[in-house]
Design brief:
The protein is mostly beta strands. The protein has one helix at 9-24, and strands at 33-34, 37-38, 40-44, 48-54, 63-67, 71-78, 97-104, 115-119, 122-128.
């Protein structure tokens, strides 16, 4: 006996919507600032955490980095160097405007010892790991 399924236009609508969503998330699309957020790598070794962010076309004076003991926030502004009106554009993908991104760090860090350098559109923040306090302290009773 064959399975019979009724045709539903809503099934096609949801399938088409899922396909569009999948296309937007495809890593082959060359987007550096998807939704205004820079692409970021977080690397951890034995002694430090290194955060690298792609921020092409942004001046280092327009970037602000805040480090807490367990997270990092990168804020900045990509400024347009054109005064043209949008109607003259044939195709526009580059992002202009402000962005902010907060990411959790994989371990506790010594935030006051963080350093940053900016070269060729890549921001590199190096943060030493925090020394872990002992889990407990034995209290003597008088």
């Amino acid at each position: 006996m064959a399975n019979i399924r009724l045709w539903s236009p809503m099934d096609h609508l949801f399938r088409d919507f899922a396909d569009m969503t999948r296309m937007l998330e495809t890593p082959n699309i060359p987007v550096l600032f998807k939704g205004g957020e820079p692409k970021v790598d977080i690397i951890q070794n034995e002694t430090e955490v290194v955060v690298k962010a792609d921020v092409p076309g942004v001046n280092k004076e327009d970037i602000n980095v805040t480090v807490t003991e367990d997270s990092i926030t990168i804020r900045g502004e990509a400024k347009s160097d054109y005064e043209e009106k949008k109607e003259n554009y044939f195709h526009a993908e580059r992002f202009y405007g402000t962005y902010s991104r907060t990411l959790p760090l994989p371990t506790l860090v010594a935030r006051e010892k963080a350093t940053a350098k900016f070269q060729d559109g890549v921001l590199t923040i190096t943060i030493p790991k925090a020394t872990r306090p002992e889990k407990g302290h034995v209290v003597s009773i008088d």
